[in-house]
TrEMBL record:
SUPFAM superfamilies the UniProt entry points to: P-loop containing nucleoside triphosphate hydrolases (SSF52540)
Keywords for the protein's UniProt record, in alphabetical order: Antibiotic resistance, ATP-binding, Nucleotide-binding, Transport
Protein name: ABC transporter
A family per Pfam: ABC_tran
InterPro entries assigned: AAA+_ATPase (IPR003593), ABC_transporter-like_ATP-bd (IPR003439), ABC_transporter-like_CS (IPR017871), ABC_transporter_ATP-binding (IPR050763), P-loop_NTPase (IPR027417)
Annotated source species: Streptomyces lasiicapitis
Keyword ATP-binding among record annotations: yes
Subcellular location(s) per record: Cell membrane
Topology relative to the membrane: Peripheral membrane protein
Domain ABC transporter, first and last residues per copy: 6-231
Domain of life: Bacteria
Residue stretches spanning the membrane: none
Length: 291
């Protein structure tokens, strides 16, 4: 049996001439919250849809809870929690009716009341779906994804469009599931979300993994490079990216024989690192060599 909850090697998928996923490897351990972080169009949804068994792939090996999603059957589906973002449940049903209805699809569902409480919808249990806000609706979607008590939950951009309070509530839901031992894979384009939730993450851009690791380790690895800026005697501003800014400043001090005009040292935030890795900082896009 595969020791990994999700094991992906060399995954590729094209839409016509567009390589949406261009050789991705993923290794998600049982019990962890794994983030797939990347900008719009990076290939996150395509990857998750392949993991869910909803999209075919062109190349690569994919194992999700020990089975290939392309061929796995009903028993596998019951163990993989998938959160839909469509509005397929009838708007006239109440939250409680909807969760109860979905629970019947599973051999060993969680108690619908527990699930409603887990996503913080107790006060809305008797509300009709059409009366829910966008954030409440998304929490209901998660409730439907977890009512079957899945070992693995696959979430595609679960908090897009949430206000900050709803996002924080949602994070608590995910943390609660993780504490209970559920493995969670979630895609997001919010760096803050990946940092808040993920034990480990990959950053993807243009269908490739450009960085991976624990959020804190990524911050250390890519965030240690500082930018030293100064003003030349002719008035031009200069910038130099370096892992040893103190040395650069010492060199500048001896060159200027003391005070360095316009001196500044900027350490990148993780946000800057992320933007650089994904090629959104206006500079040359980071490629594989950056790892
Ligand atoms: N059904 C499709 N047909 C053609 N091209 C597609 C299709 N789905 C996605 N693409 C293209 O594949 C690339 C990856 O898309 P994907 O939706 O996987 O990215 P994403 O990281 O999830 O983006 P977003 O954050 O915007 O959802 C994009 O260039 C997108 O335009």
């Amino acid at each position: 049996m595969n020791q990994l909850a999700v094991d992906v090697r060399g995954l590729r998928k094209r839409y016509g001439p567009v390589p949406a996923v261009d050789g991705i490897d993923l290794a998600v351990r049982h019990g962890e919250v794994f983030g797939v972080l990347g900008p719009n169009g990076a290939g996150k949804s395509t990857t998750v849809e392949i993991l869910q068994g909803h999209r075919s792939r062109d190349e690569g090996e994919v194992s999700v809870l020990g089975a290939d999603p392309a061929t796995a059957g009903r028993a596998w589906r019951a163990r993989v929690g998938i959160v839909w973002q469509d509005e397929s449940a009838p708007a006239e049903l109440t939250v409680r009716e909807t969760v109860r209805h979905f629970a019947r699809y599973y051999a060993r569902p969680r108690s619908p009341e527990d699930v409603i409480a887990m996503v913080g919808l107790q006060e809305k249990a008797d509300s009709r779906l059409k009366a829910l806000s966008g954030g409440q609706r998304r929490r209901l979607d998660v409730a439907l994804g977890i009512v079957g008590d899945p070992g693995l939950l696959l979430l595609d951009e679960p908090t897009t469009g949430f206000d900050p309070a709803a996002r924080h509530r949602f994070w608590d839901v995910i943390r609660g599931l993780a504490d209970e031992g559920t493995t969670v894979v979630l895609t997001t384009h919010y760096l803050q979300e990946a940092e808040a939730l993920a034990d480990r993450l990959v950053v993807i851009a243009r269908g490739r993994v450009v960085a991976e690791g624990e959020p804190a380790a990524l911050r250390r690895r890519y965030g240690e490079e500082a930018t030293v800026g100064w003003t030349e005697p002719d008035g031009r501003t200069r910038e130099f990216r370096t892992k040893t800014p103190t040395r650069t400043v010492a060199e500048l001090m001896s060159r200027f024989d003391g005070e360095v005009p316009g001196l500044r040292i900027v350490r990148p935030s993780l946000e800057d690192v992320y933007l650089r890795l994904t090629g959104q900082d206006g500079g040359p896009a980071a490629q594989e060599g950056e790892r």
